[in-house]
Design a protein that fits this description.
There is one protein chain. The chain is mainly alpha-helical. It has helices spanning 2-34, 36-64, 71-90, 92-121, 126-145, 154-191, 201-206. Helix 4 runs antiparallel to helix 5 (126-145). The longest helix has 38 residues, at 154-191.
Length: 207
């Protein structure tokens, strides 16, 4: 009966690594919330490298599919991704300012639409929608009034919060998975006889 036990140990180890990864993400998120400026520049550099690598991969795929009708479209999209990645990597501060302005406008428009929509529709969730709209409008105004200084901490704060919540989710999955594997392994150990246990006459007759 070493098969199920070995598989259970492998699953438990995998969930343990998942919880460890979640812990590292939580630590990174907390550090990012403390040093939001560094987190903002880090997120911009990661974003730039993702665009650059994605553009290079897309360009290689377009070259491999040359002769097809969508080849040139793939080349154009890959070139735009590569150019955007180079710009973001060379100018992370300017990119952070532009994205912060875009985020502020999104908060403003989303808040206004929620406020107007909740007043016009007057549905059962009107109070909650009004609260969401007011919060989005206020957040957009705060970011916009403090721009471009807000670009030093807004994106880094969002990036750090994403790491923090993703890490907490992985920790919950890892701990929960280890508990489930442990419970299943204990149940199997209780129900399945080992090789050293004697077989009763009734079990022998059934066999």
């Amino acid at each position: 009966m070493n098969g199920p036990t070995a598989e259970g140990r492998k699953l438990s180890r995998s969930f343990g690594w998942l919880a460890l990864l979640g812990t590292l993400l939580v630590i990174a998120g907390i550090i990012g919330l403390i040093y939001t400026g560094v987190a903002t520049l880090t997120s911009m550099l990661l974003f730039g490298w993702l665009l650059l690598v994605g553009g290079l991969v897309g360009l290689l795929h377009a070259i491999e599919s040359r002769g097809t009708s969508y080849c040139w479209l793939g080349v154009v999209v890959a070139a735009l991704n590569i150019a955007a990645g180079v710009v973001v990597i060379k100018h992370p501060e300017g990119t952070a300012e532009a994205l912060t302005m875009f985020a502020a406008l999104l908060f403003l428009t989303g808040g206004v639409f929620r406020l107007v929509g909740s007043v016009v529709v007057r549905g059962p969730q009107m109070g909650w929608t009004l609260l969401q709209g007011a919060f989005g409008l206020l957040l957009g105004l705060l970011v916009l009034f403090d721009w471009p200084h807000s670009s030093l901490y807004v994106l880094g704060c969002f990036f750090s919060l994403a790491l923090l919540f993703d890490g907490l989710g992985l920790i919950a999955i890892g701990i929960g998975g280890r508990r489930i594997v442990s419970m299943v392994s204990e149940r199997l150990d209780e129900t399945v006889p080992t090789a050293d246990e004697p077989i009763t006459p009734a079990e022998d007759e059934q066999k």
